[in-house]
Amino acid sequence: MAKPKRIGILTSGGDCAGLNAVIRAAVYRAQGTYGWEVMGIRQATHGLMMRPPSATPLTIEKVDPILTAGGTILGTTNKGDPFAFPMADGSVQDRSQEIIDGYHELGLDALIGIGGDGSLAILRRLAVQGNLNLVGVPKTIDNDVGSTDLSIGFDTAVNIATEALDRLHFTAASHSRVMILEVMGRDAGHIALHAGIAGGADVILIPEIPYSLDSICQKIEDLQEQGKNYCLVIVAEAVRTGAGETMMTTNQLGQSRLGGIGHYLADRISEASGAETRVTVLGHIQRGGTPSSVERLIGSAFGVAAVDLIADGKFDQMVTWRNRHVESVPIAEAIAQYKGVDTNDILVKTARSMGICLGD
Ligand SMILES: Nc1ncnc2c1ncn2[C@@H]1O[C@H](COP(=O)(O)OP(=O)(O)O)[C@@H](O)[C@H]1O
Ligand SMILES: O=P(O)(O)OC[C@H]1O[C@](O)(COP(=O)(O)O)[C@@H](O)[C@@H]1O
Ligand SMILES: [Mg+2]
C-alpha cells in the first residue's frame, strides 16, 4: 500500500473571516477521505523559514470547533517578502531557499497556500524555484484576485461595511450631516461598491471612477431639494485627492499604509457645500468578527477542492468560485491581472440607474 501523503497548509497576507473554514474543510477531506496527514504551518512562509519549521499536526478533532472563529488559527503575515527579507541589521536577504528546505524538512508532498494576489505570487515563485507542489486558495477582503467571482473574506467585510452604513443613517439624519465612511480595499473599490448599494449610500466613490467635488456637492444639493437632510458617502481607501494622489498614513517607523481620504473629502465637502461632515474609518473591523454563512460555504467548498486537486496531481492551480461552480485555473492566470471594479459591472449600472452618485 502506498504511504499516505503529508500535506501542509498555510494562510498568508492580511487575515480575514472564513480562513478557518477553509482549513477545517481541507483537514476533513484530507484526513477523512484520503487518510492523509495535514501539517498547519504557522505565520505563513515564516513558519517554513524557522528551524525546526514552525508547524502543528491538524486533525479533524482539532479543527472541528474553528468554523465560527474569525482570523486564522495558523497566524499570518503581510510583511517580509522572502525574496527580499528585511533582516534585523537593516540588510535585505533572499531567504527563499530556507522556505523550500523547510517544506522538505517537514516531509510535505504538497502545500495549500491560502492568500491574496501578493501571497500567491510569492508562493508560486517559491514553488517554481523549489519544484514544490502548490495549490492556491484565494482570500482577501479586497476581492481583487482575478479568475474568481469571490475570495474568502469579502462577503463578511461587505456585511460589516453595510451594517456600518445602516447605523450611520440614523445619526446622519438626526444631525442633518454628511457622513463619510472610509472602507478598505487596496486599489479596488469592490467593498465600497457592494456595501454602498446594500447600505443605501447616496454617494459611492471608488478608485476605478474619477470623481469631481462639484458632482458630490450637486448631489448633496439635490438631496436637500428632495427633502432629504443628510447624505451618506462611502469611499474606498485608494480614492485619490484632487491632485491625483493616494492618501497614506505613515507611522513613526516610516511604514506607510493607505488611509486618510475620508478626512480629506470631509474638509473639501464642508468647504465647498457648507454642509457639516463627520468621518468614520472602518479599518480592521472589516477583517474581524464571525464569518458570514457565505464565507463558511465557499470556504468549505474551497478547502475540499484544494485537497482534491492534490489527489488528482493538479498543481500550480488556484481554486475559483464562478457561477456557483468550484473550478480551478493556473495560479499565474489568476494573478496576471489585478481585478479592480469593471466599470461596466451590473452593480455600477445598478447604482447609476438608482441615481446614486459615483462622483463622475
Ligand atoms: N508569504 C509571505 N511572506 C511574507 N510577506 C508576504 C507574504 N505574502 C505577502 N507578503 C507581503 O505582504 C504584502 C501584502 O501583499 P498583498 O498582495 O496585499 O497580500 P495578499 O496576499 O493578502 O493579497 C506584500 O508586500 C507582500 O510582499
Ligand atoms: O493589516 P494592514 O497591514 O494594516 O493592511 C491593511 C490592508 O490589508 C487589507 O485589509 C487586506 O489586504 P490583503 O487581503 O491584500 O492582505 C487591505 O484592504 C488594507 O489596505
Ligand atoms: Mg492583496
From TrEMBL:
<feature type="binding site">
    <location>
        <position position="177"/>
    </location>
    <ligand>
        <name>substrate</name>
    </ligand>
</feature>
<comment type="subunit">
    <text>Homodimer or homotetramer.</text>
</comment>
<keyword id="KW-0963">Cytoplasm</keyword>
<keyword id="KW-0808">Transferase</keyword>
<feature type="binding site" description="in other chain">
    <location>
        <position position="237"/>
    </location>
    <ligand>
        <name>substrate</name>
    </ligand>
</feature>
<comment type="similarity">
    <text>Belongs to the phosphofructokinase type A (PFKA) family. Mixed-substrate PFK group III subfamily.</text>
</comment>
<protein>
    <recommendedName>
        <fullName>ATP-dependent 6-phosphofructokinase</fullName>
        <ecNumber>2.7.1.11</ecNumber>
    </recommendedName>
</protein>
<keyword id="KW-0547">Nucleotide-binding</keyword>
<keyword id="KW-0067">ATP-binding</keyword>
<dbReference type="Pfam" id="PF00365">
    <property type="entry name" value="PFK"/>
</dbReference>
<feature type="site" description="Important for substrate specificity; cannot use PPi as phosphoryl donor">
    <location>
        <position position="118"/>
    </location>
</feature>
<dbReference type="InterPro" id="IPR022953">
    <property type="entry name" value="ATP_PFK"/>
</dbReference>
<keyword id="KW-0324">Glycolysis</keyword>
<feature type="domain" description="Phosphofructokinase">
    <location>
        <begin position="6"/>
        <end position="310"/>
    </location>
</feature>
<feature type="binding site" description="in other chain">
    <location>
        <begin position="284"/>
        <end position="287"/>
    </location>
    <ligand>
        <name>substrate</name>
    </ligand>
</feature>
<dbReference type="InterPro" id="IPR000023">
    <property type="entry name" value="Phosphofructokinase_dom"/>
</dbReference>
<dbReference type="InterPro" id="IPR015912">
    <property type="entry name" value="Phosphofructokinase_CS"/>
</dbReference>
<feature type="binding site" description="in other chain">
    <location>
        <begin position="184"/>
        <end position="186"/>
    </location>
    <ligand>
        <name>substrate</name>
    </ligand>
</feature>
<comment type="pathway">
    <text>Carbohydrate degradation; glycolysis; D-glyceraldehyde 3-phosphate and glycerone phosphate from D-glucose: step 3/4.</text>
</comment>
<feature type="binding site" description="in other chain">
    <location>
        <begin position="140"/>
        <end position="142"/>
    </location>
    <ligand>
        <name>substrate</name>
    </ligand>
</feature>
<feature type="active site" description="Proton acceptor">
    <location>
        <position position="142"/>
    </location>
</feature>
<dbReference type="InterPro" id="IPR012829">
    <property type="entry name" value="Phosphofructokinase_III"/>
</dbReference>
<feature type="binding site">
    <location>
        <position position="278"/>
    </location>
    <ligand>
        <name>substrate</name>
    </ligand>
</feature>
<feature type="binding site">
    <location>
        <begin position="116"/>
        <end position="119"/>
    </location>
    <ligand>
        <name>ATP</name>
    </ligand>
</feature>
<dbReference type="InterPro" id="IPR035966">
    <property type="entry name" value="PKF_sf"/>
</dbReference>
<keyword id="KW-0418">Kinase</keyword>
<keyword id="KW-0479">Metal-binding</keyword>
<dbReference type="InterPro" id="IPR012003">
    <property type="entry name" value="ATP_PFK_prok-type"/>
</dbReference>
<keyword id="KW-0460">Magnesium</keyword>
<comment type="function">
    <text>Catalyzes the phosphorylation of D-fructose 6-phosphate to fructose 1,6-bisphosphate by ATP, the first committing step of glycolysis.</text>
</comment>
<feature type="binding site">
    <location>
        <position position="117"/>
    </location>
    <ligand>
        <name>Mg(2+)</name>
    </ligand>
</feature>
<feature type="binding site">
    <location>
        <begin position="79"/>
        <end position="80"/>
    </location>
    <ligand>
        <name>ATP</name>
    </ligand>
</feature>
<feature type="binding site">
    <location>
        <position position="14"/>
    </location>
    <ligand>
        <name>ATP</name>
    </ligand>
</feature>
